[in-house]
Specification:
This protein is of the alpha/beta class. The protein contains 19 helices and 16 strands. It has a domain at 333-504: Isoleucyl-tRNA Synthetase, Domain 1, CATH 1.10.730.10. Strands 1, 2, 3, 4, 8, 13 and 14 form a seven-stranded parallel sheet that branches. A four-stranded antiparallel sheet has the order 6-5-7-9. It has a three-stranded antiparallel sheet with strand order 10-12-11. The longest helix is centred in the middle third of the chain and has 31 residues, at 333-363. The chain binds 5'-O-[(L-methionyl)-sulphamoyl]adenosine (MSP). Residues 9-12, 20-21, 23-24, 49, 230-231, 233, 252-253, 255-256, 285-286, 293 line the site of 5'-O-[(L-methionyl)-sulphamoyl]adenosine.
Length: 535
C-alpha cells in the first residue's frame, strides 16, 4: 500500500487562528482525505510553533509564563481543527518533550559532524524590539525607524550552520526533481534565490536575549533559532513511525517557501544524512475585502465563529472553490453568500430536496429501479442525436468523474468542484426535462415506467456527485448518504476501504429499494441574507 505523509505549516501561537490558518488546514485535509479515498495509507500532521521572541514578548505583556500562554493558544488551534472537521492524525507542539529531544539530537549530530561552528556575529541591535536589524530596515535617509528605539552596533558570539557548502547540491536537486516545488512556477523563485551565494545560517540566540527556546545540547548558554526548531517538527512526528519519511508533501504558504522550506530544510536534512521531502506545496494568500487581514481594521475572519454561523462545510466549500491552489484570493461575505445561495442551497440542496420529495410523493419513499432500457447504458455507442436524456447524463457523469479525479491529483480542486457542480446542474436540468410531476399524473404504463426511470436516475446522479464531494464536504456528504438510505462511509483507516471509493463512483442501480428520508436540511438560509446589511 502506498504511504502518504502530509503536513501543514505549524502556526505561531502569538495570536488566535485566522482564515489563512484555516485555509491551509482545510486544503491539506482535502488532499489527505482524497488520498485515503484512493487507498493510500495516510499520515496527516498539523500543529503549532511555540518558541521564539514574539511568544516570549506576548506572554510577558500578559503577565503569564510562556508555557501557560502557549497552552491556552494552542488549545484554540486544536479547537479550530476539530470544528473544521480536519482529519489530522497528530497535532504537534514544539514545546513537547518528544520534539525537544529530536531537535537536540539533530543539533548534536550536526555539531559532531562539523556542520556547525561558532563565530562572531556583528550587527545593529534594537533593544526595544530585542532583535538584530537588517540594512533593509533603515529609513531611506539611513536612520532607523522610531519603532526600534535606540539602535547600537554590537558583536555577539553565535553558532552557525554551514549552509553554503550545500548550495550546489540543492540547485542540482531542484533541477533533477521537477516536482519538488508545486506549483512549478515557484521553482524559479527558489533558483533565483540560489543564484546568489548563500550565507551560513546563524542558528542560535544567547539565553540572556531569548530564553523561550530549546537549549543547544553542546552549549546550554544558547537556545536554537526558531526555524531550526520549527522545521524539525515534520521529522519529529514520524521518527517512531517507520515508512513515513520522507514526507510526501509539506503544505505551506508562499511567504515561507524561500528560504525556510525550500532552502534551509532540505539542506538541514542533507547535512544530517536524511532524505529531503518529496514535495513542497506553496499556496497563496487570502486577503479579506480586498486588503490584508488585520484585527485592528475589523478585516478579520474568525474561522470557528464563521463556521458556527454559516456551516463548516459551507466554509470548506468556499475556501476550496474560490482559491486556485498557488494563487491569491479575496474573501468577502458577499462572494461567500453568492456561492452559498447559488451553488450550495439552490443547486446541490435543491437536487437533494427534489429527489427526496419526488421519491416520497411518487414512489412511497422507495427508490425504484430504472425501467428496462432506462439505465442510460449505451453499450458504448452514444449516438448524440438519438441519445436519451439518461444516456446523456450518464455520459456526462463518466467524463466528469475521470476529469475530477485527475484534477484532484493535480491539486486543481477549484476546477474539480466547478465540474462536479456542472454535473449537478445537468442533473437538475434532467429533472426539468423528464418532469416527473407530469408523469406522475398519468396512469399510462409507458409514463409510469419513465417515472421510475426518472426517479432512479436523479437519485443515482445525486449519489455519484455526492461521492465526488466527500473530501471537501465530509459532514454534508455523510448526511446525503444517510438520507438516500446508504450506510456511512467505511472507516477511512480501514484498509478494506481501499478501492471502495472507486467502486462507489460507478453508475449502477445500488439505490434501488432504498428508503429515503422525508427531508434534509443541509444549507439553511444564512442569517445575514435575511437581514441584509445596510450600505
Ligand atoms: N510558524 C511559522 C511556520 C513554521 S512551519 C515549520 C509560521 N506561522 S504563521 O502562523 O505565521 O503562518 C502559518 C501558515 O499560515 C503559513 O503557511 C502561512 O503562509 C499561512 N498564512 C498566514 N496568513 C495567511 C493568509 N492570509 N492566507 C493564507 N495563508 C496564510 O509562518
Amino acid at each position: 500500500m502506498n504511504t502518504f505523509y502530509i503536513t501543514t505549516a505549524i502556526d505561531y501561537v502569538n495570536g488566535s487562528p485566522h482564515l489563512g490558518h484555516a485555509y491551509e488546514k482545510v486544503l491539506t485535509d482535502v488532499i489527505a482525505r482524497f488520498r485515503r479515498l484512493m487507498g493510500d495509507k495516510v499520515f496527516f500532521l498539523t500543529g503549532v510553533d511555540e518558541h521564539g521572541q514574539k511568544v516570549q514578548q506576548t506572554a510577558r505583556a500578559r503577565g503569564i509564563p510562556p508555557q501557560q500562554f502557549c497552552d491556552e493558544i494552542s488549545q484554540e488551534f486544536r479547537a479550530m481543527c476539530a470544528t473544521l472537521d480536519i482529519s489530522n492524525d497528530d497535532f504537534i507542539r514544539t514545546t513537547e518533550p518528544r520534539h525537544k529531544k529530536v531537535v537536540r539530537d539533530l543539533l548534536q549530530w550536526l555539531h559532531d559532524k562539523g556542520e556547525i561552528y561558532k563565530a562572531e556575529y556583528r550587527g545593529f541591535y534594537s533593544t526595544r524590539q530585542e532583535q538584530f536589524l537588517q540594512e533593509k530596515d533603515r529609513n531611506p535617509d539611513g536612520t532607523w525607524p522610531e519603532l526600534f528605539g535606540e539602535v547600537t552596533e554590537i558583536t555577539e558570539s553565535n553558532y552557525f550552520f554551514k549552509l553554503r557548502q550545500y548550495q550546489d547540491w540543492l540547485i542540482d536537486h531542484l533541477q533533477k526533481n521537477e516536482d519538488f516545488i508545486f506549483p512549478r512556477y515557484r521553482r524559479k523563485q527558489v533558483l533565483e534565490f540560489l543564484g546568489e551565494p548563500l550565507n551560513d545560517l546563524c542558528i542560535s540566540r544567547p539565553k540572556e536575549r531569548l530564553e523561550w527556546g530549546i537549549p543547544l545540547p553542546f552549549d546550554e548558554a544558547f537556545v536554537t533559532y526558531v526555524w531550526f526548531d520549527a522545521l524539525v517538527n515534520y521529522y519529529t512526528a514520524v521518527v517512531d513511525k517507520p515508512g513515513f519519511w520522507p514526507a510526501s508533501f509539506h503544505v505551506i504558504g508562499k511567504d515561507i517557501l524561500v528560504p525556510p522550506h525550500a532552502v534551509y530544510w532540505p539542506i538541514m536534512l542533507k547535512a544530517a544524512g536524511i532524505e529531503p521531502p518529496r514535495s513542497i506545496l506553496a499556496h497563496g494568500w487570502w486577503s479579506v475585502n480586498g486588503s490584508k487581514m488585520s484585527k485592528s481594521t475589523g478585516n478579520f475572519v474568525e474561522p470557528i465563529a464563521f463556521a458556527g454561523q454559516y456551516g463548516v462545510d459551507a466554509l470548506r466549500y468556499f475556501l476550496i472553490r474560490e482559491m486556485s491552489v498557488g494563487q491569491d484570493s479575496d474573501f468577502s461575505l458577499q462572494q461567500f453568500l453568492a456561492r452559498y445561495n447559488a451553488e450550495l442551497a439552490n443547486n446541490l440542496g435543491n437536487l437533494v430536496n427534489r429527489t427526496l420529495n419526488m421519491t416520497n410523493r411518487f414512489a412511497a419513499g422507495i427508490i425504484p429501479a430504472a425501467a428496462p432500457g432506462g439505465d442510460g447504458a449505451t453499450g458504448g455507442a452514444v449516438d448524440a442525436a438519438a441519445a436519451t436524456p439518461e444516456a446523456e447524463l450518464r455520459a456526462l457523469w463518466e467524463k466528469t468523474r475521470d476529469e475530477v479525479i485527475s484534477l484532484h491529483e493535480g491539486f486543481q480542486f477549484h476546477t474539480a468542484l466547478e465540474r462536479t457542480f456542472a454535473f449537478i446542474t445537468a442533473t437538475n436540468g434532467y429533472i426539468e426535462k423528464r418532469a416527473p410531476w407530469k408523469l406522475g399524473k398519468s396512469a399510462a404504463p409507458a409514463d409510469q415506467a419513465l417515472l421510475r426511470t426518472a426517479l432512479a436516475t436523479m437519485a443515482e446522479a445525486l449519489r455519484l456527485a455526492n461521492a465526488l464531494l466527500a473530501a471537501v464536504m465530509p459532514g454534508t456528504t455523510a448526511k446525503i448518504k444517510a438520507v438516500l438510505g446508504l450506510p456511512a462511509a467505511p472507516a477511512a483507516a480501514d484498509a478494506a476501504a481501499a478501492g471502495a471509493w472507486r467502486d462507489e463512483l460507478v453508475w449502477g442501480s445500488r439505490l434501488a429499494g432504498n428508503k429515503v428520508a422525508e427531508t434534509a436540511i443541509l444549507f439553511p438560509r444564512p442569517q445575514s441574507e435575511k437581514t441584509p446589511a445596510k450600505s
